Structures are given as C-alpha cells and as structure tokens.
Amino acid sequence: MMVLMRLAALLALFISVMPVPPAFSHALEPGYLALEETAPDTWRVFWRRPDVKGSPMAIDALLPESCDVRRGLPPGFDGSAWGTGWITHCAGGLQGGTVMIEGLDRTRTDALVRIQPLEGATTTQRLTPDQPGFTVAEVPGTWDVFISYFQLGMEHILEGFDHLLFVFALLLLIRSPGRLVGAVTAFTVAHSITLALASLDLLRIPGPPVEAVIALSILFLAVEILKRKDGTERLSERFPWVVSFGFGLLHGLGFAGALSEIGLPQGDISAALLAFNLGVEAGQLTFIAVALALIWALRKSLSAVGRFDVLSARSQPVMAYAIGAVSTYWLVERISGF
After folding, report:
1. One domain for residues 218 and 258
2. Among 53, 167, 232, 247, which is disulfide-ready with 217 (CB 3.0 to 4.6 Å)?
C-alpha cells in the first residue's frame, strides 16, 4: 500500500493542474448517424455531431449517391450536441453504397453509423479518422459487430474519468492484494449485470440520478481513505467486495446509458452486448496494469534517492482530498442538472 502512495502524489499534482472534466465525464462523444428504413428505399436520417466550444464539430455525414438527399439541413443544439434529421429516398437501397463522414480524418474523434432496414439485422459501423467511410454490406458479419462494440466499450471506460477514478480510489484504499482482486472482480460482475439488464430494457432508472450517485461513490471512497488509521481496518477495507459490488451496479447503469445512445443491432444483440462489456473490462484491466506499472517505477525512483518514506506519509491525504474535490464538483454539477 505504501507503494500506491507514491503514485498518489504524482496524480494529485496532475489533478490540481488539469481542467476538471465535465459533469457527464464518461459519456461517449462520437458523431452519430442513424438511418432507419420507414418504407422500401425510404430512410429517416438522424445526424448528431459533438459540440466544440459552442459550435458543431467540423464534420458532416454524406450518404451514398443513390440517395436523393445526401446531406441534412444545418444542425440545432440540443443542450449537449448538434443534431439534424431528414428523409431521403435511396433507389435500390443502401447496399453497395458508400457512407462517408467528411472531415473526420481531420479530427481525433470517431463516428458511429447505425443502419436499420425494414428487413434483416440492424448494423452498426464505427468510423475513425483513419477510416472515415465504409461500403454498406449486404450481409453484415457478427464478427464485425463484435469488434466494433468491443472497441467502443474499451474506449468508453478509458475516456470515463469518473469510472477510472473510482477504480484508482480502490487501489489506494485496499492494502491486501487478495482483497483488491476480489473488489475488482465484484465491481466487474456488478456492472455486467446492470449493463445487461438496462441495455435489454429490463431495468429502467433515470440517467441523471445515476450519474450523481456515481460521483457520490467516488466521494465515499475518498472519505474512507482519509478516515483510515494504521493498525485498524474500516468496514470498506475488511469487506471491499461489498462496496465494489454495490457501487458497481450503479456504474453499470452509467455504462448502459452510454450504450443506449448507440443502440444494439437487433440481429446481434448478444454479441454486441458481450463485446461492449468485454471492452469495458479490457479497458479497466489496462488502466490497472498501467497504474501498477507506474507505481512500481515510482517506487524504484524514490527509493534510489531516499525519498520513499517521506513521500508516503504525505501523499495519501493529499490524493484523497484531490479525489474528493473532483468527485464533489461532479456531484454538485450533476445534481444541479436534474
């Protein structure tokens, strides 16, 4: 545990100088293009772009040449992003045509394209700056769906500062490696359960309260770190899996909220849901591995200069206050947004 405190001081400095992420810090921020076939060869289009300093991101959706209306009207702001919609007729359907997100190659974001035909499976395609367009396939592959949703899940957790801060607080709080493994496992099982239930529409809880309680869960761990004393263990240290499981249920609802913005392909719901959850877990394990590697490197460097013991006594409360400050900011902002 003393080793973890070395990383705490470094991260405390980082947090103190970095801008606080927005209230819904873990929400996905790609462009989103949805095409729904309402009649043979007639499609309802919805195009949503991220907000960049009060203006829509400089990207635009371009439909295949077979469509009579390939672009939409100027977008309107919905409070978090810029959206527009239109109806288009695509002679012969979309199959074999190219869907392109113009300007995506000049950004660092992604775009999600969801195509829902009258017959057949709904497909989802992830576009990136390196691949800003794709040809609509006649028969979508399950493997393509799996890869796309796995990448989305991994990116979501790695961009979700609140989820990662919760995991890092667990690393600071739990001294026993065995209990740490149990806590992380419980967190994974819990968020997997609620992610599946909410994504399949078997569990419905409003998003804003969930987001607020997620921030509260991080604040709780910060308080637990501050109240810990040498020689005694708090309940959250003796039974960390209970805390992790309880709050993991809420974090799973947060994951589901992000996934609901994308939707699940009707023909491959199981594959997409499994892939997204595995992607979340892969991202979480990647973060833990990187954190532990940094801890090991920090311990080596501090031991070499004889500063190991001095820093360990001071870093824990500093890091706990930093975590508490950020989570309190998120909590207040999210409650004010109800």
Report:
1. yes
2. 247
Q: How far apart are CA 111 and CA 99, in angstroms?
A: 11
Q: Tokens in use for 149?
A: 């949703």
21 and 40 inside one domain: no
- Give the pair of three-digit tokens for residue 147: 């890869």
Residue of 176 and 76 predicted with greater confidence: 76
Based on the fold, state whether residues 61 and 176 are members of the same structural domain. no
What's this model's pTM, rounded to 2 decimal places? 0.66
What's the confidence (pLDDT) of residue 175? 75
Residue 198 confidence (pLDDT) above 70: yes
19 burial class (0-12, 13-18, 19+ CB within 10 angstroms)? exposed
Q: Are residues 237 and 173 in the same domain?
A: yes
Answer whether residue 313 shows pLDDT above 60. Answer: no
Residue with tokens 């439909």: 63
Backbone angles phi, psi at 130, to 5 degrees: -80, -25
Angle at 295 between CA 291 and CA 300, to 5 degrees: 150
Summary mean pLDDT of the chain: 81
Q: Which residues contact 201 (CB under 8 A, 6 or more apart)?
A: none
C-beta of residue 223 within 8 angstroms of C-beta of residue 284: no
Q: Give the range of the structural domain holding residue 12, as residue numbers without chain letter.
A: 2-26+160-336
Whole-number CA gyration radius for the chain: 22
- The Cα–Cα gap between 36 and 267 comes to 15
Q: What is the pLDDT of residue 306?
A: 57
User: Do residue 15 and residue 39 come from a single domain?
Assistant: no
Give burial (CB, 10 Å; 0-12/13-18/19+) of 283.
Answer: buried
Coil, helix or strand for 169?
Answer: helix
Check residue 16 and give its pLDDT. 41
In 3-state terms, what secondary structure has residue 90? strand
Among positive and negative, which fits the CA dihedral 235, 238, 244, 245? negative
Q: Name the phi and psi angles at 221, rounded to 5.
A: -65, -35
